[in-house]
Amino acid sequence: MFNQSTDCLFFVRPDADGRLVLESVNSAAMKYVTVSYDQALGKHPIDVAASGTGLFDDGTLAEVFKTGEVHRRQPHEETQGGTVRFDAVYSPVYGSDGGLIGVLGSARDITNVRALEDRLRHTQRIEALGALSGGIAHDLANVLTALSGCLHLLQKRMPSSECSDIISEAQRTIDRGTAITGRLLSFIHKRGRELARVDVVKCLIELAPSITRFVGNNVELSITGCDTAFVMVDRHELETVIINLVTNSRDAMPNGGRIVINVELKDIHADSGCLEHYVLIGVHDTGTGIPPDLLKSVMEPYFTTKPDGAGTGLGLSLASDLMRSSGGHFYLESVEGEGTTAYLRFKQV
After folding, report:
1. CA proximity to 193, closest of 90, 306, 327
2. Where are the alpha helices (DSSP H) in the chain?
3. Most buried by CB count within 10 Å: which residue of 18, 95, 136, 178?
4. Rounded distance, CA 14 to CA 299, Å?
5. Residue ranges, the chain, pLDDT below 50
């Protein structure tokens, strides 16, 4: 029973010098010992344990043997597969004469339980955030509507003014803000995207003035490639994704650099042998690049390499989500120290 248990079990007793040494260790607990079973027996736990503060915590074992009281802890062990968390009980063991003869350690792996609890808490936070965001989105939509009305009146009073272009751009910015709040409400209320035939080149050219302002004076921005390229996409979501990608590029170049948004038409042979036509948008920067071991992780929701408060970790996952819903593909190419290119590949329509 002792050795067949899936829980980690071990027993320590005092040696001739009064030091607690291992007398028995089951197979489950041996995973966290750095030597063989025979070598572990008779040794002080901390001398053979993978971690001095994990299962074989020297201080806890000594305290239990000293006081004769049961102790409960939730230690963890670091392994190649990640952190393993335990619910551990350390109990005094008494002999037939009533004297304390050792300590029995029993630990159950609760890693999955903790992960489920964390997911539940995260889900509850997201639900609360959704309720809060819904109210904020409604209020913000009302503010944007009022601003749009004011701009409309201003445009009518100053039809040929030098400010006309600025007013028009301000209106487009408000329209994007309205679209963002609409998407937030759509997400909360599970509405679908509004796909339409969009010329991505025209979209990028119209977006360029806004992007140029927020990237800063030390970043050179250019749009290159073909003259026109039509795809099926939610235009406002595409604009948001482009802005997120450009923001990532800007943040990767704290000392300035160059961002190139390139649009090209590509013909790719499908598995069926047919030639399919695609539009490839590449957002390239000359920044710090992404380490190879992080290249996959950066696509995961909430993963960010930016300092706390400087990023949500949602930009790239939203880009990937947009491409899936549009029947496209999103991927990254990066060389550490040289830069990164984010690619959006759509079917041409």
Report:
1. 327
2. 27-30, 37-40, 45-48, 58-67, 111-157, 164-188, 200-215, 235-251, 315-325
3. 178
4. 52
5. none
d(CA 95, CA 101): 6
Q: What pLDDT sits at residue 254?
A: 87
Residues with Cβ within 8 Å of 135's Cβ and at least 6 positions away in sequence, in order, are none
So what's the pLDDT on residue 280?
A: 95
Asked if 13 contacts 22 with a C-beta cutoff of 8 angstroms, the reply is: no
Partners of residue 10 on adjacent β-strands: 25, 105
CA dihedral 55, 61, 67, 68 (to 10 degrees): 70
Question: 199 - beta bridge partners?
Answer: 230
pTM value is 0.51
∠96-102-108 over CA atoms, to 5°?
A: 115
Cα torsion for 215, 176, 317, 277, to the nearest 10°?
Answer: -90
Write the DSSP assignment of 29-76 as a string of letters: HHTTBSS-HHHHTTS-HHHHBS-TTSTT-HHHHHHHHHH---EEE--E
Residue 275, burial from CB neighbour count under 10 angstroms (0-12, 13-18, 19+): exposed
- Pair of tokens at residue 23: 């007398």
Tell me the C-alpha distance between 256 and 219, whole Å: 5
Burial 228-251, CB ≥16 within 10 A → b, else e: ebebebbbbbbbbbbbbbbebbbb
Backbone angles phi, psi at 102, to 5 degrees: 170, -170
Tokens of 277: 């036509």
